[in-house]
Amino acid sequence: QVQLVESGGGLVQAGGSLRLSCAASGRTFSGYVMGWFRQAPGKEREFVAGVSWSGYIRSYADSVKGRFTISRDNAKNTVYLQLNSLKPEDTAVYYCAAAFLSTMVKDAAEYAYWGQGTQVTVSS
């Protein structure tokens, strides 16, 4: 079992920045692919970014490439998502997720563990 707790969400103006954190506990954190997903009202949950267990392989949705950065600190059992140049369309609940896999995946169904989510609201 892995428990995930997100933090760092909030209200920010367009063009601003936030850093989301996801603290993990339970099974060995370093063995997991970690992902960030988001879900806006009335929309399906979508992949935002993912990072391999080593931290060397990272993947991003086209809509956030160049603006968001995912990273992880296995010593602290924490994964981060730096959100820069935020846009109103980035408004959503952001979820951290863990997949006990050796390869990067973007399908939410592949992730076994989820946090409770943190709200990000970007005003225009």
What tags apply to this protein structure?
seven-stranded mixed sheet, mainly beta, four-stranded antiparallel sheet, 124 residues, 51% strand
Task: Count the DSSP helices.
Answer: 0
Shape descriptor reads globular
Distance between the termini: 40 Å
Number of strands: 11
Largest pleated sheet:
7 strands, mixed
Helix content: under 10%
Order of SSEs, N→C? EEEEEEEEEEE
Poorly predicted parts: none
Based on CA atoms alone, the radius of gyration comes out at 13 Å
Relative strand content: over 45%
Quickly give the structural class.
mainly beta
What is the arithmetic mean of pLDDT?
94
Describe the structure.
- With 124 residues, the chain is mostly beta strands.
- It has no helices and eleven strands.
- The strands form two sheets. Strands 2, 4, 5, 6, 9, 10 and 11 form a seven-stranded mixed beta sheet that branches.
- The protein is globular.
Short account of what is shown:
The protein is an all-beta fold. It is 0% helix and 51% strand.
